[in-house]
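Render this sequence as a predicted structure.
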Amino acid sequence: MMIIDAMTTPNHGSTPLTHLGVIRVEGEDAAKFLHGQLTQDFALLGLSEARLAAFCSPKGRVLASFIGFKRSHDEILLLCNRDILPAMVKRLSMFVLRAKARVSDASEAWLLRGLLGSAVADTASRAEAPWTRVDVGAATVVFLYPAGDAARALWVAPVGTALPQAADLPPGAWLHAEVRSGVASVGSTLSDAFVPQMLNYESVGGVNFKKGCYPGQEVVARSQFRGTLKRRAVLGHCDAALAPGDELFQESDPDQPCASVVQAAPSPAGGHDAIISGQITAFQAGALHLASASGPVVAIQPMPYPLLDDI
């Protein structure tokens, strides 16, 4: 495996998250409904917690990913990529049936900011473990996996709420921090491309293997317990530009791609950093190349967190 030193994101401050939107699920059956649709346990979700969750196809492929939390016992907010939000509102609504729950696009009612570095503790008075949430006035702060040494959190508040007192950051700083955290989000470009473990979701709190059924649950569980998974996610760096969906090749097998870019952002040090999902054997074999076996070299890095050994 070719390794380059991981870079941290030294920025501190906040930035608007215009690439994200908000789905509201409300009603007395909201938690029960989502519990039966997503990979995470929403029935037992506490008011001090948040969840990373995936909505899967019957074949266990991730159609979209969400960060969700309860505003109250009958109101849950799901944050996801805006490019896939309308399709997810429509699809989730199809499964409501007799449940006392309503799914809607609530993006225009909420302000979303990303907090990075010291702005996290400055805003929330402390830093907490990932997927913890606290209320700060009318706002909710959801603590995320860090980007190197830089803490990260989401700030979610009703429109009209005063913004966090933090230096403004360019959106690119947050997008790069998302990549460096190693926690991928799935939008329209790669919808239906990966089972959750191909994105390491079981290792970053994105799958609960003890909950009841949801679409694709049998495939996800079989991948975990039978040890059949042959693809994982890693970090990568390339001097050339990278974009979601880009294919990567090995010199020894020029005819078949062995990996693909899930999420990418320009690096402050030049080039692009990316989250890459691909064959485990390919990551162990040496350098990968962008677009063809003779394309620019993509250097592979380990994830900043350990993979889950046991459930």
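Summary. The domain at 13-181 is CATH 3.30.1360.120 (Gyrase A; domain 2). The helical segments are 30-35, 85-94, 118-124, 171-181, 217-225, 280-285.
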